Amino acid sequence: MVPCSLLLTVLASAPGGDDEGWLDLDRSIAALSAQAEDERFGWGALVRSFYAFASADLTDVDDEQSGFDLDDVDLFFGMSGEELAVRVSLDGGDGELVLEDAYARWRLFEWLVLSGGQFKARVTRSGSIAPEGLLFRQRTFLGAAFDTWDDGFELGGHYDQFDYWLTVTDAGNGQQSDHFWSVRGEWALYDAAFDDFEGARESPNYMRVLLGAYLFEDVDQSAQDGGGLGGDVAFTYGPWALYAEWATLDDLFQRDIDVLAGAPLTLGDGDPGSATLSRRLGEAFEAAVRMQDADDADDTTALGASLSWEQTRGARWVADLTSIDGDGPEGTVFSLGLEVGTSGLPRPFLDRELR
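User: That's the sequence. What structure does it adopt?
Assistant: Structure tokens below.
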């Protein structure tokens, strides 16, 4: 009940015209991500609320696209130590609590960690970004395709400049013989691996480059196994950030995703990709542009722009405008939202403790 009461406190806070109102909000938000240093036990909450307006073409597809929506109401609990870590998270954004993370991690060696339970496989970097780490309201096409939780096991770790993951989960056919599996590797070409955030938040004034590559096979919506391979690159240099991703999906791989405000598209049998360029504007603002190509049956493409503003630590406004073009649903979607709190999802293997 403590996390819920703090969440209500934050939502009820209405800062006035002076600095004291924002300071009170800042203290309430900090409580949402409290971490006891000695016990290494953490808990917190994240709320992402958006108002959206869709053009008439998209509204004809789904008349519920315009209006207010709670994208995330997340609660998490976790414990982290040198040998063992546990995490449980719930999402109540749709009006009912849904279990997302429920896993434990054990350090087998300095360079190898075993995870078991329900978790999100790390395939594309964009799919593993924490919700509050997104520059836009929604993920990229490829990121949304792998923004799913499933039961299984994972071996991963860190050695020198490399991070790696090998994952096997149930996939869409449950406990039948065919499963989802993926292999991902990341190479910190310059500097070290950095947090799973889009954009240049807290980026130092020197170059960082993180290269990723992945391979996977799935039996989600296909009658037979379908898979693919791809890569991504994350680059930051002072106030500038660039993220690009691409994949080659075979003709048996199919994933329905919904990142067009209610107008779904199906990825598969194509070469989807995206590129996102952003720049910090002072300490509080960051502007970004994004180009995407789903390479689907409807030749769907999207061009978007966003502006985010962090008024106080843990509270952030996001405004974005996305134009969708193709042979299927097309039009323009505008979203304006407020994000408060944290999902407690740091990048794995950033230090010697388990995460």
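The chain has two domains: 1-32, 43-341.
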